[in-house]
Amino acid sequence: MRLRVEFTTEPFDLDEAPPHAVAAREVIQGADLDAVDVGPFGNTAEGDVDAVLTAVDAMLRRSLGAGATRVSLQVNVIAEPGERTAPGEVAR
After folding, report:
1. What is the Cα–Cα distance from 73 to 56, expressed in whole angstroms?
2. What does the alpha-carbon distance between residue 11 and residue 90 come to, in Å, rounded to a whole number?
């Protein structure tokens, strides 16, 4: 099974990335994940279930420990590459 995780950490700071955001990004970028995309208003990554869940656990612990007051998180099950997701669709 593959998962896609999307998350943001708060509070926001438009002038520079706060320590909790930096910590979260370091965890995700250092994890064994595919298609990692980090940005100022949200982050996404994909990978197998164990890699994503391990990274999410570490990201939550590090970002909360670094001062995050809220972490918005969404996890979706996605199809394996080439696997059908719905009639006529093929996963990317």
Report:
1. 9
2. 38
- The residue type found at 31 is A
Q: Is pLDDT above 70 for 90?
A: no
- pLDDT score, position 28: 94
The answer for 60, left when phi > 0, alpha when psi is -120 to 50, beta otherwise, is alpha
Q: What are phi and psi of 31, to 5 degrees?
A: -80, 165
Q: Beta-strand (E) ranges in the chain?
A: 2-10, 34-38, 43-48, 70-78
β-pairing verdict for 2-10 and 34-38: unpaired
* Stated pTM of the model: 0.82
Instruction: Give the pLDDT confidence of 47-86 residue by residue, as tens digits.
Output: 999 999 999 999 999 999 999 999 999 999 997 766 665 5
Tell the burial category of 21 from Cβ atoms under 10 Å away from its Cβ (0-12, 13-18, 19+).
Answer: buried
